[in-house]
Model the fold of this input.
Amino acid sequence: MEPNVEGTILVVEDEPSLLAALEYTLKRQGYRVITASDGLTALERARQERPDVIVLDVMLPKMDGFDVCRAVRREMNVPILMLTARDEEIDKIVGLEVGADDYMTKPFSMRELLARLKALLRRVRMIREEAAAQTTDAERLVFGDLVIDLSRGEVTRAGQRLVLKPKEYELLVFLARHRGRALSRDLILERVWGWDFAGGTRTVDVHIRWLRQKVERDPANPVRIVTVRGIGYRFEG
Ligand code: CA
Done:
């Protein structure tokens, strides 16, 4: 199981019963919840509180969700999930014009909303961790005799340079930067290959196998890139 991702969520919705339901559900999940019921207040709250994610209704008094989204985008890098009642707004929501990260059409299930928010928050956390890893250890990641030289894009084991394919290298760097954490195949696929990659999670397994043959002393009994049953893989650093 992945650890529960907590964070601060700004919920913007002018329909009181829906706002109350969202607030209740999210708080029960352990999130800190801030609310706003019009666009101007939403923008103010976002500036003051710096939420980790924003749930934003489209039709709002004073300033609509599109304008709020655009304004927030100019000032901060926070994922935005938009709520819409109309299918014809979807192109605008996800398109370049507004550029929300995700959307849901009303009525929606709370379960589905929670799953989407969890995914957005996970991405935020990953990006922050990567940024932190880059600033604290910009040049080299060292794990015993295994050294990843990020500035040169080279990997050595016991002083011997390993020949890695570009995707193997990217995969290794991704795993190493998130050492100690169980990473699901889906997440690895999304982060190393990208959203638009057509292949399945088998691709991940195949690359892991190749990588083990290069970085493990005994690829049949891996100690660096270990399998986490039912989830995926974990890098031991
Ligand atoms: Ca509304």
